[in-house]
Amino acid sequence: MRSLFRRRSVISGICGLLLMTVIGCAGGDSDVASKDAQTGDRSTISNEDVEPLSVGAIPDQDPEKLQRLYEKLTNYLSIELGVPVTYQPVTDYAAAVTAFKLGDLDLVWFGGLTGVQARLQVPEAQAIAQRDIDENFHSIFIASVNSGLTEVKDASDLSELKGKTFTFGSETSTSGRLMPQYFLEEAGVKIADFKGEPGFSASHDATLKLVEAGTYDAGALNEQVWLDRLAAGEVDESRVKAIWQTPAYYDYHWVVNSQKLDGVYGDGFTGEIQAALLKLDASDPEQAEILELFGAKKFIETNNDNYAQIEAVGREIGKIQ
């Protein structure tokens, strides 16, 4: 009897310990996750315990190409950062700004103008990285071969566009609208000088196709998209040609709400995101594919001050109040 009693006591004790463990686990996961997030240690946290990092981008290109790009990027970031990362597509440029403002997007690939618009609405937001090509970015003016337009050798020759039909990209695109309009006005060409109302195609690819088809005599688009489509053989050069490259300006960049992210994932998390982006290496085949899809050799650091010109031009033409 005494032996049986001991066995029952041992079993009872083990059950009690197991019950306490279960109760502790049931109530402690969030505490552990919270504590580890505060200390920046996410190595012991299951992905199920961590709020996904939501990545977005302005829809400036073909949706299928963007989906391919961001699927590869989010997989890379999830491994580097140790948290789940998801890509959330948006319908237009304004939706990307609004989603960032509301906190629905945490890390966003903005153009120069949309990045400024977003940061003005989220005071804690920071521009943290850009491609190597973005500190000296250009727009390309293209023309239908049948338009009669010739190469613009000097900005003053932009007057040839008066009386022609013209399309921009998105209304809030830096390279497809803001800076092209700025340089046109600098050359004395106003929107009212075009034949009819200018078009707003919504994306660089659409601008290219519209001018190629002869729907518009000319248009302006992102230089990187133009060069990429040429290299891929996707441009019918018997129907459309480049006629002018704009002066350089700062453009695309990654923006984060650093205060929010450091609060959710731990102090210094913004720096970890920046480091992961800067770490992308063209010598690694998988990372090289990400960089190639971005049209870059690498990412470099940037900061909010680099977009002062974009903000000034945005205010000048009424895109920033």
From TrEMBL:
<dbReference type="GO" id="GO:0043190">
    <property type="term" value="C:ATP-binding cassette (ABC) transporter complex"/>
</dbReference>
<feature type="signal peptide">
    <location>
        <begin position="1"/>
        <end position="26"/>
    </location>
</feature>
<comment type="similarity">
    <text>Belongs to the phosphate/phosphite/phosphonate binding protein family.</text>
</comment>
<dbReference type="InterPro" id="IPR005770">
    <property type="entry name" value="PhnD"/>
</dbReference>
<dbReference type="Pfam" id="PF12974">
    <property type="entry name" value="Phosphonate-bd"/>
</dbReference>
<dbReference type="InterPro" id="IPR030836">
    <property type="entry name" value="ABC_peri_PhnD-like"/>
</dbReference>
<dbReference type="GO" id="GO:0055085">
    <property type="term" value="P:transmembrane transport"/>
</dbReference>
<keyword id="KW-0732">Signal</keyword>
<protein>
    <submittedName>
        <fullName>Putative selenate ABC transporter substrate-binding protein</fullName>
    </submittedName>
</protein>
